[in-house]
């Protein structure tokens, strides 16, 4: 079975269509301490975060299908093929490195020093994750019905807080300060069909054997059809954008 991080390319167009953007307040928080305007979106995928980062952004993505979607959607953005472990940029060339729903795939033993290399002194490394807000009863029940392949441990606020610690350790050879953490309310307009489509792009779902994936999606459809919050029309999926940031010394 492929590593889940290598499975998104097969669903690149669905990812581009159905994955949410990021809370603008979270993006501002990630960047407000950066020493300058030059930003790298690392593991940029189809450009969900890139689109919010302004004119000076450079996008780096390893998967050619995802990179193709990004280039089609954002033709004026500089977009390069590369990875967190091998970044195709010169030393000290960016003021901030951001990553949207991707940093947990990085091999931080290799990526930490590489990110520190391309950051200017005092530059910011930040990771953003969109999670569903399971304080809403129907979302908590959806998570139970869907199973961990669709809504896993990083995909709810409490699970994210306990499971997501992906920045380099403070005092390590990569020279980052201790990380800060923040959470920002967010939401995505969905219908039952488009929420099913969104969940079908989750990494765990993409690597399930086809019969198990079909069964999981059928369970989700049945649940959404029965709940008054989701049975008809458009609704808002309650979410948060959770963020970590650390400064390069």
UniProtKB/TrEMBL annotation:
The alphabetized UniProt keywords are: Methyltransferase, Transferase
- Gene Ontology terms for molecular function: methyltransferase activity
Q: What is its EC number?
A: 2.1.1.-
Report whether Transferase shows up as a keyword of the record: yes
Single GO BP term: methylation
Look at the named UniProt entry and state the broad enzyme category this protein falls under.
transferase
* Family recorded in the similarity comment: Belongs to the methyltransferase superfamily.
Official protein name in the record? Class I SAM-dependent methyltransferase
């Amino acid at each position: 079975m492929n590593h889940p991080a290598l499975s998104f390319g097969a669903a690149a167009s669905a990812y581009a269509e159905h994955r949410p953007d990021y809370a603008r307040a979270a993006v501002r928080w990630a960047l407000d301490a950066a020493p300058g305007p030059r930003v790298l979106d690392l593991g940029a995928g189809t450009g969900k975060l890139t689109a919010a980062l302004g004119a000076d952004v450079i996008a780096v993505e390893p998967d050619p299908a995802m990179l193709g979607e990004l280039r089609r959607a954002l033709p004026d953005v500089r977009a390069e093929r590369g990875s967190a472990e091998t970044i195709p940029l010169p030393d000290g060339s960016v003021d901030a490195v951001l990553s949207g729903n991707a940093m947990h795939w990085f091999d931080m033993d290799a990526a930490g020093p590489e990110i520190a290399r391309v950051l200017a002194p005092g530059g910011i490394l930040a990771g953003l994750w969109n999670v569903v807000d399971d304080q809403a009863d129907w979302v908590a029940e959806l998570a139970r019905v869907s199973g961990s392949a669709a809504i896993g441990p990083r995909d709810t606020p409490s699970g994210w807080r306990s499971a997501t610690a992906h920045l380099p350790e403070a005092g390590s050879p990569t020279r980052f300060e201790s990380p800060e953490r923040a959470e920002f309310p967010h939401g995505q307009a969905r219908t039952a069909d488009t929420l099913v489509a969104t969940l079908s792009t989750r990494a765990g779902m993409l690597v399930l054997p086809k019969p198990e994936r079909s069964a999981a999606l059928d369970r989700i459809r049945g649940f959404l059809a029965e709940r008054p919050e989701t049975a008809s029309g458009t609704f808002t999926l309650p979410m948060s954008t959770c963020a970590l940031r650390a400064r390069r010394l």
